[in-house]
Each structure stands twice: as structure tokens, then as C-alpha cells.
Protein: Tagatose-6-phosphate kinase
Organism: Anaerococcus lactolyticus ATCC 51172
Amino acid sequence: MIYTITTNPAIDYILRFDKFEDGATIRAREDEKYPGGKGIMASKIIHNLGEKSINLGFVGGFIGEYIANAIKQLGLGENFVRIKENSRINVKLKYDKETEINAKGPHISSKEVESFFESLRDAKKGDIIVISGSLPYSLDSNFYKKVIEKTEADFTIDIADKKLLDYLSYKPLLVKPNEEELGKIFQTEITDDNLVAYARKLNELGAQNVIVSLGARGSIFVSGDEAYRARPIDGKLVNSVGAGDSMVGGFVYSCVNNYKKIDAYKLAVACGSATAFSPDIASKDMIDEILKKVEVEKIGN
């Protein structure tokens, strides 16, 4: 079974308009509402690929129930802990640029945290837990470590900057920093000449598989002696939210279904690109179409 953790889920309220003007009243030409959060995004892509997953985390109030109900309507599994305070609403402004306004989120009590760890009890060896995103302000900074230590399941972890180093000794199945984050982790400037070497350092420190996103320049994949680079895929950027989570979801789906590593990487690339070219998480048809265009080459260093 695949479990995804979203500790601070939200309604992603997307407003599309033609022009932004500070201090003005602006009328959106379109608006959309989706259940949002990095774990939820990964769960959506896993579902679209045809695999089951269970969403774990915290939801509260009428906003939380909207999130939980929207997830159920999408056909996703959920075992969220219901908390006293309201979940959050994040506003995404789409015009000639993208601007995100993310709310702080609710306070989570110690009793509610205990209930979360009860919800994790079914996770066992052979399962995969997708861990991603920043923690709510009220949770202990070691919350994710406690998640890992309380189960024998494999896990992926997608968190920012040097904090990632704290989790490598637990041997995560996948880490996915971007180029800038990789530089911050090792306090150096990442170039094409040292990119693979620093990705390999994450391998050497414990990460089983590493994907480094390079934005418009594609990405690289490193695992043991294998290293590959995927060329960027042409397409119109529609929505960058969830593209990285889709890469993680695609890779996890591949692991559950025993893909070869190079094929798992190709599917991860296709999922990330397809979501970037879609208004929400990509459909299976879109992923299949993009997968035909994925070009991967073996690289050295």
C-alpha cells in the first residue's frame, strides 16, 4: 500500500485573470477549487495511473471536510485525523505570472498528533510512505523522523534545503531536490560540471534514488552506478503547482509495479511534465502522450 502524508492540507483556490494591478479591484475570469497539499498531489497522480493510496494527515472544520469530501469524490482513500481548528485556504493567482498566497494553517494539539500516529499503524514493511512539504507551526520539528521511526515502510521525502540531510541516514527510497536546493544543501554553486557529483553525494549519504529538477533544462537521475539526464519536453506551462509531486508519485507507482530504474525515471519525468501542461494533476491519457516524448541519455561524472 502507498500512504501519502499531508500535514497541512488546504483548499487551493485558483483565480485566473488577464492583468494584475496592485490596490485595484480585479475580477477573475475563471476560478477553480482543488484539495491541495503535496501529499494529496502525489496521491492524485498515483490514482490517475491506476494505483491505490491512502491520504494521511490533519483536516479540520468546514474547510477540512470540503478537502476530505473532494478527495473521496476523486476516488482517493483517506484516513485524515479530524482536528478542532479549521484547515487553510491557499490562494493561487494566475495572470502573466503566478503568485501564491499560502495561509499559516491550524494549531494541532498533542492529542490530535497521537491520533495521527494511530492512523499510521497499518503501514508495514513493503509499503511506501510519501513524505513532503513543510510542517505546520505547531508540530515538532522532528515529526517526520518520528513517522519514519514508527514504521518499517519505505519512504520518499521531499523537503527543502539542508533539512534533507537529517533524513539520509534513514535511507529514503527517493529524494528530489531542485538545482538551487542541491546547492544550498552542500553550500556550493551547482554547475553542469559538478551536478552529478553532488547528486551522487546524496546517494552516498543514504538516498537510494535521487532526482534533481533543473527547470527548463530537464532533470537528472542518479542511483548507484547509474546516472541519466532527461531532456526538457516542449509544451506550454499551464500550472507549475504539483509538477514535482507528480514526479514523486510517478516514481513511487513505478516502484510498486517493479519498473526498472530507468523506466521509473522516465515515468516520473512524464508525470511531472504532463501536470505542468495541465490545469490540475495530469490525466492518464496526458501522461501516456508525454511519455512517448521523454528522451533519456546516460551521463557520467
Q: What stands out?
A: The mean pLDDT is 93.
